[in-house]
Specification:
The complex is a heterodimer.
Chain A (H helix, E strand, L loop, with lengths): L1 H26 L2 E2 H12 L10 H11 L2 E7 L5 E7 L1 H26 L2 H4 L1
Antiparallel strand pairs in A: 1-3, 2-3
Helix pairs in contact in A: 1-3, 1-4
Chain B lengths: L1 H12 L3 H25 L4 H12 L2 H12 L2 H19 L1 H30 L10 E8 L2 E4 L1 E2 H10 L3 E8 L2 E6 L7 E8 L3 H5 L5 E2 L15 E4 L1 H8 L9 E4 L2 E8 L15 E4 L3 H4 L14 E9 L5 H18 L1 H4 L3 E5 L1 H8 L2 H33 L1 H9 L4 H36 L1 H4 L14 H27 L3 H6 L8 H38 L8 E6 L8 H17 L3 E7 L10 E7 L11 E8 L3 H5 L3 E4 L13 E5 H7 L9 E4 L6 E8 L14 E5 L8 E7 L7 H11 L6 E5 H45 L1 H9 L4 H39 L6 H27 L3 H6 L2
Parallel strand pairs in B: 6-11, 8-10, 17-22, 19-21
Antiparallel strand pairs in B: 1-2, 1-12, 1-13, 3-12, 4-12, 5-6, 5-9, 7-10, 8-11, 9-10, 14-23, 14-24, 15-23, 16-17, 16-20, 18-21, 19-22, 20-21
The chains are: A alpha+beta, B alpha+beta.
Chain lengths: ~120, ~900
């Protein structure tokens, strides 16, 4: 049970990271809540119950140098941490987008394959 | 690359945890505030808006965990946590902690101090570059596995071998008369003759000037040059850099200073630190042996030969080559090289073959390790008790989801901290013991030569101490840690102390007690044996009268006397001191018994004795004395006569042997009137004219040995000791003797002027006393630890069984029944420990006898004293808590817990 959950979070973290990068690529500088909202809007319920899981992912990406963060003022005029994509992050996004598309294509073909194609 | 970057950031982040927590807290607050605002806009009530926002955010604590794991290095962070926790819990039980630390410190300290001895005596590499390929070449015979080579033999080895990148030779460090100015009275310094390539081959670069050139060591007497040792340069010349080129006088000959050896090179000797080095070619100035020609005589073996193995040459190749060379020499010079071989030793072999000092070191290390082992078992026992008392705490931790591995790690961290503290304190104790040794320098070395105890706490020893600490941490922490983590949750939670008296668990604790009792018995036996055999040897007496004796050493070579002048000097000296009021007897001897210098050996063949086929001659220790010697020292002549004034150089040669010698070679008949031949079957015949009683010669605990006396007139020696027996205080004679010597030659120094009693006390009593104090301390420490350990164990057992005892007593058991119940087990354990300890004690006794004392047999008295006292003391340790148990009121015991 624990093993399955662990794998699931790993996948979740991976996809989440990619979503964060894409979100920042499209929308520019955003704070954590903003990113969460955007992902929620696009992906539906992926973050519906666990918005908090976003923060460890943000930290990881920052440590890898893919994103950078600074303090700024939020909509209700309080201190919030704003994240933006770095040059390196853009490169990483490109590579991972390609990887992802490739993987998706392969998996897609696999799922479409019929018994006679494999024989 | 990305991983590395993350790792580095994380290492950096370890220090900024607090800031990171703050940042996360703020981000979460803001996130929830924004979400709440959003919900409010959607029309929810303020309370509901916030609730929904919190729900949506998810579990904050779990997320924080993830976040932290992402932020820092989990492993290091956990370790820091463990250390903090361990420190906290150790502080809570500060008494126990202090006890454990002290116990471990004693064990580790003693072990590292004794390690430093063995390191100094055996293992510490030579202070030269690439020390491991420096080997020692020795001449070997039947009964000598470490003989030197003569100058001629050295030249043969140097020129006819190819295994080496250079072969060097050095004579023993000798007392040399040194004076900076021509008029000054010479002072004694330690000089060493070395071959011209000595510094070059060893790779030692002088800090000033230069080393010897090879051509400075070719023509005897041509190049009077000298290289100073660093300490000598510092003390005598105040580190004056202009010393190179200056002239100094050694034994009355002018030498030019050409260099100063570097601080990194205190010399190649274990104990001695030479003040200066002179080329072998100057041997005439320094030689001790007037009868031999250093440069020509192949049996004048005074040189320690060392060589640097060529890279790629194995030790075996070098050995074969040297063995071949030795065979050739044996063929070529049958007179002096008969049944003589040669051997190549590594540093380790050379140091263990050269003398027996290292054996003391090894025995001390064995005993110190035993102390450490006792300490570790003691601590293990304590930690085990502590872990048991913490069963509930650990069960709670396990129930809350702590991993067993994590728990073991936590407990091991605790013992590691204990061991580190113990190790630190132990290193301090080690420093103390080594300093104590150094404070005894003056007792150990009473020679006039520069010497130092080679024991010191250096990086090697510190490393060993750290390793010992970790080792002890594992030894005493692993078992308790493993056991705690095995706690059964259900029963663990139910009671404070879930010890099910399973056989397996108790087995471990019992083993600890048995080990402790047996180890400390062994330690006590060892110290008792040493103390007793030493005491015995003192009670036996020396065989001569040592009171009211004054000794003064002379060495006319220091002022360049020739043989005739030397003879004249000693004759005049003896005649004049005889006139001094208060002098009862006077004597001259080459060596004094029980002093620091070793007696010389004498090779001889007893006439008409059936020699074993493989032997050329026998060896005996010897001394050269004048006609007053036996009377002055009060050594009885049992048969025949002592030496007389009529035994002159022209008269037929005579000798006096001791009783043991006479019995050894003439077991049936009378030795008086028989002859021995010096060196070989064809050597000079010497008639035995008297038999002296056997005395102690080298040490008070030696076994009786063969001894030969030769008369000074027939065997002239330059360096002699004058011994005077006074009618009162011998030191009152110092001034008259000084006056006489000044009237004979104002430049001749008087060396080692002291009363014989003083020398005897230092050399024969206090010196070995140091060893006995050390072993005695170890035995005592071991015993104290064993007592504490046993007490702790029984006390713990009692406290665990308090309830049971209460029930028993409520049911009518008497005090004595309880006492028996509690003590019975202790008795059995002490009994088993005693039996094992006895066996180990016997083994140690055999070891010590074979290594040091050569007494053999078993010292029953030592066991009669040690065994019952240990038994009594340990029983007392068990009795005190047992008695307390028996006095518990049943009502109180039943309510216990």
């Amino acid at each position: 049970m624990a093993v399955i959950m662990k794998q699931k979070t790993d996948v979740l973290q991976g996809t989440l990271a990619l979503m964060v990068l894409k979100t920042l690529d499209v929308l520019g500088t955003l704070h954590g809540y903003g990113i969460a909202r955007r992902i929620e809007q696009i992906s539906g319920d992926l973050l519906a119950v666990n918005q908090g899981t976003l923060y460890p992912v943000l930290l990881k990406l920052e440590q890898e140098g893919a994103i950078a963060s600074d303090w700024g003022a939020s909509e209700n005029n309080r201190r919030a941490r704003f994240y933006r994509l770095t040059k390196e992050g853009r490169k990483q996004l490109q590579v991972e987008t390609q990887d992802w598309e490739q993987t998706a294509a392969i998996i897609g073909r696999f799922f479409e394959a019929k018994a006679e194609d494999l024989s | 690359m990305r991983t590395l970057r993350r790792l580095l950031t994380r290492v950096g982040n370890l220090a900024t945890r607090r800031r990171q927590d703050e940042r996360l807290r703020e981000e979460i607050a803001e996130h929830i505030a924004l979400q709440t605002a959003e919900n409010l806009r959607a029309g929810l009530s303020p309370v509901e808006a916030r609730r929904q926002a919190l729900l949506k955010f998810g579990g904050v604590e779990a997320m924080k965990q993830d976040y932290r794991a992402e932020w820092g290095l989990l492993f290091v962070e956990n370790m820091i946590q463990d250390v903090r926790f361990a420190l906290r819990s150790l502080r809570r039980t500060s008494g126990l902690t202090a006890f454990v630390v002290i116990t471990l410190a004693l064990g580790i300290g003693m072990t590292s101090a004794t390690f430093s001895m063995v390191d100094g005596l055996i293992f510490r590499p030579y202070p030269v570059p690439h020390p491991s390929n420096v080997v020692t070449l020795v001449s070997t015979t039947h009964d000598n596995s470490f003989d030197y080579f003569s100058y001629r033999e050295y030249l043969d080895i140097r020129d006819k071998t190819d295994s080496y990148d250079g072969v060097i030779a050095s004579a023993d460090m000798e007392a040399v008369g040194y004076s900076a100015e021509p008029a000054a009275t010479p002072r004694i310094k330690g000089g060493m003759m070395v071959s011209g390539n000595y510094f070059h081959v060893l790779g030692v670069e002088p800090r000033l000037g230069r080393g010897f050139r090879e051509d400075e060591d070719q023509a005897p007497g041509r190049n009077a040059v000298v290289v100073l040792g660093p300490d000598f340069w510092r003390h005598e010349f105040a580190s004056d850099p202009s010393v190179v080129g200056r002239t100094i006088r050694l034994n009355g000959t002018e030498f030019t200073v050409i260099g100063v050896a570097p601080d990194s090179f205190p010399g190649m000797l274990t104990f001695g630190v030479p003040d200066f080095y002179a080329p072998l070619a100057m041997a005439r100035v320094f030689t001790t042996n007037l009868q031999k020609n250093f440069f020509e005589d192949r049996d004048d073996r005074e040189l320690n030969v060392k060589a640097r193995l060529k890279p790629g040459t194995t030790l075996d190749q070098a050995r074969n080559e040297l063995a071949m060379l030795a065979q050739n020499l044996e063929r070529e010079y049958p007179n002096v090289n008969r049944s003589r071989s040669a051997q190549v030793y590594t540093q380790f072999e050379a140091r263990t073959q050269e003398d027996d000092n290292w054996k003391f070191g090894v025995i001390f290390v064995i005993l110190a390790l035993a102390v450490l082992l006792v300490a570790c078992t003691n601590v293990a026992g304590l930690l085990l008790s502590r872990a048991r008392a913490r069963t509930r705490e650990i069960a709670v931790r396990l129930a809350l989801g702590a991993g067993r591995f994590r728990l073991i790690r936590l407990l091991l961290t605790e013992s590691l901290i204990l061991a580190s503290l113990g190790g630190l304190a132990g290193i301090a104790i080690g420093y103390g013991v080594v300093a104590w040794f150094h404070s005894k320098d003056s007792i150990v070395f009473m020679t006039e030569l520069p010497a130092a105890v080679p024991f010191r706490m250096d990086a090697r020893i510190l490393l060993a101490s750290v390793a010992l600490s970790v080792f002890s941490a594992l030894l005493c922490g692993l078992a308790p840690a493993l056991q705690s983590a095995r706690v059964d949750l259900v029963s663990g939670l139910k009671s404070a102390d879930a010890d099910v008296p399973g056989r397996k668990r108790l087995w471990g604790r019992n083993l600890l007690v048995v080990a402790q009792v047996s180890m400390s018995l062994m330690l006590l036996t060892a110290s008792f044996l040493m103390a007793r055999s030493f005491q015995h040897s003192l009670l036996d007496g020396t065989g001569f009268a040592k009171d009211r004796l004054l000794m003064v050493k002379f060495d006319p070579r220091l002022v360049q006397y020739n043989a005739a002048q030397t003879k004249q000097f000693y004759k005049l000296l003896a005649d004049r001191v005889r006139e001094v009021p208060g002098v009862q007897n006077e004597a001259l001897t080459q060596n004094i018994p029980l002093g620091q210098d070793e007696f010389y050996g004498l090779a001889f063949v007893p006439d008409a004795f059936q020699m074993p086929p493989d032997r050329e001659n026998f060896n005996s220790t010897m001394d050269t004395v004048d006609e007053g010697y036996f009377e002055t020292l009060g050594i009885p002549i049992l048969r025949g006569r002592g030496f007389l004034a009529s035994d002159t150089a022209d008269a037929s040669r005579v000798a006096v042997v001791n009783e043991r010698f006479a019995k050894h070679y003439w077991p049936a008949g009378d030795a008086v009137g028989k002859h021995i031949r010096l060196d070989s079957r064809t050597g000079t015949p010497v008639e035995i004219v008297g038999i002296a009683s056997t005395i102690k010669y080298q040490s008070t605990f030696e076994k009786p040995m063969d001894f030969v006396y030769l008369p000074l007139a027939q065997h002239p020696i330059s360096r002699m000791v004058l011994m005077l027996r006074s009618s009162g205080d011998p030191l009152k004679l110092v001034q008259p003797v000084k006056d006489i010597v000044r009237s004979l030659d104002p430049n001749l120094p008087m060396l080692q002027t002291r009363s014989y009693e003083d020398l005897y006390l230092n050399a024969a009593v206090k010196g070995p006393g140091i060893a006995i104090q050390l072993v005695g301390t170890m035995g005592l420490v071991g015993l104290l630890m064993a007592i504490a350990g046993l007490y702790g164990l029984v006390a713990y057992n009692v406290s665990r069984r308090t309830r049971e005892i209460g029930i028993r007593m409520a049911l009518g058991a008497a005090n004595s029944d309880v006492l028996r119940l509690v003590m019975g087990k202790g008795l059995v354990l002490v009994g088993i420990g005693t039996v094992i300890g006895l066996a180990m004690g016997f083994a140690v006794e055999q070891l010590m006898n074979s290594m040091l004392f050569n007494v053999g047999g078993v010292d029953i008295v030592a066991y009669i004293i040690v065994v019952p006292s240990l038994f009594l003391v340990t029983m007392l340790a068990a009795y005190v808590p047992a008695r307390r148990a028996a006095q518990i009121a049943p009502t109180q015991a039943l309510r216990y817990e």
